[in-house]
Specification:
Blueprint: E1 6-21, E2 26-42, E3 46-50, H1 57-64, H2 68-71, E4 76-85, E5 88-91, H3 97-100, E6 107-110, H4 124-135, H5 140-153, H6 170-182, E7 188-192, H7 200-217, E8 220-224, H8 228-234, E9 237-242, E10 245-251, H9 252-257, H10 262-269, E11 322-323, E12 329-330
Parallel strand pairs: 3-8, 3-9, 6-7, 7-8
Antiparallel strand pairs: 1-2, 1-4, 4-5, 9-10, 10-12, 11-12
Length: about 325
Amino acid sequence: MTENNVLLKVKDLRVKFPLFGGVFQKRIAEVKAVDGVSFDVTKGETLGIVGESGCGKSTVGKALINVLKITAPEVETSGQVLLERNGNFVDLLPLTRKEINPYRSDIQMIFQDPFSSLNPRMLVGEIIREPLDIHTKLTPQEKKEKIGWLLDKVGLSPEQATRYPHEFSGGQRQRIGIARALATNPRLIIADEPVSALDVSIQAQVINLMMDLQEEFGLSFIFIAHDLTVVEHISSRIGVMYLGNLVEIGDADAVYKTSKHPYTRSLLSAVPLPEPKLKDKKERIVLQGDVPSPLSKPSGCGFRTRCFMVKPECANLTPKLEDKGNGQLVACPYV
């Protein structure tokens, strides 16, 4: 990975949601949804982010495009989200809604639920035209032509621009969401579990469409999901999150075949095998206990309460991502 090839740098990203209670609604606690996450995204690659539900992976995606302040004004974010533009890096995190608007054309998002991410009162053509109205100076005729071109690119017909979202299936709606994300010619698309709400047969179609579009337009993806097989198929690199932290990150093949962190190993051991009766199948690693609450994270290593390699020192040591060979960064000093 060279400095000239980096599109996005995330440094020590932290996201806290304060909790209020009592008669006077005083601040009584805080949820550390993201607790010091750092990674880079290079041009043309797909970085997959995986982990259990509630680990903070979707919050990372929303923090990168700075929409958390709109949905939760009391949220507290810190760190840096540096986007490369014209050879310089711009920190998106402290920007206001108005200040970040010129950069939104470079980063777009595909949302998890295709049934709620499209405005039911707008025609499909109007949904796709909205980012064109905001970020481009195309004429009405040019916009109409681009809408038809985008629908064709995602496997729909231009005539379907005059229909409403409820007239489409889940897979078709997700294609509309992809077309909307492509409208501004972005360089980076954040896909937040884009296929989890779809049937398995439709998932493959949407994944293959995204890979084809990446090859054609040179897109970079941050692909957030909990399905390890899907992530391994589409990703160049994989980052594994647990309780708001990255515990391992590296090339997809290396993470999938030679995982080092005990949490990654336990996740991969739970992946169903196509041939369950094979003798050389991996030994299943069953973790004890439940995921701790982000309200009261364990001291030291957040995974220590469930780790099968735990040592007394883990209660006081907060592990940092370190290179363990083959480009794999692992947050555990004992692997």
